[in-house]
């Protein structure tokens, strides 16, 4: 897999955001998750060093803690957990499980029993 620098990830995320906006069905009576959560993709930019596929995972023993800017972004995403799920499953080049590990890695309060696409959102990385 080709490695991209943070700036390239930001460009990729903006491109994905634009594509999601263009694919919206204007006749839909309720806003789709993509419309509500498009900004969630951009929230992941400060987390790119922690979640790039192929690097030591966030939940791995001895992994460095996420950047404080990443944890702030995760705090915002956890206000709307469906947006965390959208970002985790949509952000190309990011490992979905590692994105879902970030709230716990940032010591954020995660309600037990939350899932994204059948993958549990950990409440803690300790067990």
Automatic annotation (TrEMBL):
Q: Which SMART domains match?
A: AAI
**Which keywords annotate this record?**
Signal
Q: Which InterPro entries match?
A: Bifun_inhib/LTP/seed_sf, Bifunc_inhib/LTP/seed_store
Q: Which domain of life is it from?
A: Eukaryota
Instruction: Give the signal peptide range.
Output: 1-23
Coiled-coil-forming residues are none
Q: Which residues form the Bifunctional inhibitor/plant lipid transfer protein/seed storage helical domain?
A: 37-116
Q: Does the keyword Signal apply?
A: yes
Q: What is this protein called?
A: Bifunctional inhibitor/plant lipid transfer protein/seed storage helical domain-containing protein
Q: Which organism is it from?
A: Sphagnum troendelagicum
């Amino acid at each position: 897999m080709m490695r991209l620098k943070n700036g390239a990830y930001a460009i990729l995320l903006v491109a994905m955001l634009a594509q999601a906006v263009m694919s919206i069905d204007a006749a839909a009576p309720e806003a789709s998750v993509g419309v509500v959560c498009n900004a969630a993709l951009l929230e992941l930019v400060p987390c790119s060093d922690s979640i790039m596929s192929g690097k030591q995972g966030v939940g791995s023993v001895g992994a460095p803690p996420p950047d404080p800017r990443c944890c702030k972004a995760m705090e915002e995403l956890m206000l709307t957990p469906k947006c965390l799920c959208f970002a985790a499953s949509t952000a190309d080049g990011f490992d979905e499980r590692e994105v879902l590990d970030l709230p716990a890695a940032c010591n954020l309060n995660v309600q037990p029993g939350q899932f994204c696409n059948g993958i549990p959102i950990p409440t803690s990385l300790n067990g």
